[in-house]
Amino acid sequence: MNVTGGIYYQYLPLVMIMQGDINKVLKDPGAVHFILGMSRLPAGDLKLTVEYYYKEYFDFPVDTLQKQSFFIDELIENCGFLYGHSNLTDKGRAYSCGLEITLHKKCQAVCTL
Asked: Which of 37, 59, 89, 107 is the most exposed place for a label (fewest CB within 10 A)?
């Protein structure tokens, strides 16, 4: 059984900060992670892992006029540029949770020369 957690921060993309003076005062977004899991070896070459995760995000930049949009994804879609976001605030909050199941099988490689 394993339990892990932490508080993580990520810098805002520089290209976003440089696109407006208001962006320079935004806080760096953060997240609280919590993971609870267990692993079993049902066979010598097989490992089963089941983990529950919960992540709570805070201080995410949001456009007050387009609150439903997670516009940081636009940086990828628009080659590093944000369009039409002049009302930014760092008050965005969100969460995600889920269950992850992994089955890992070891294989022995046979090498011949």
From this structure: 107
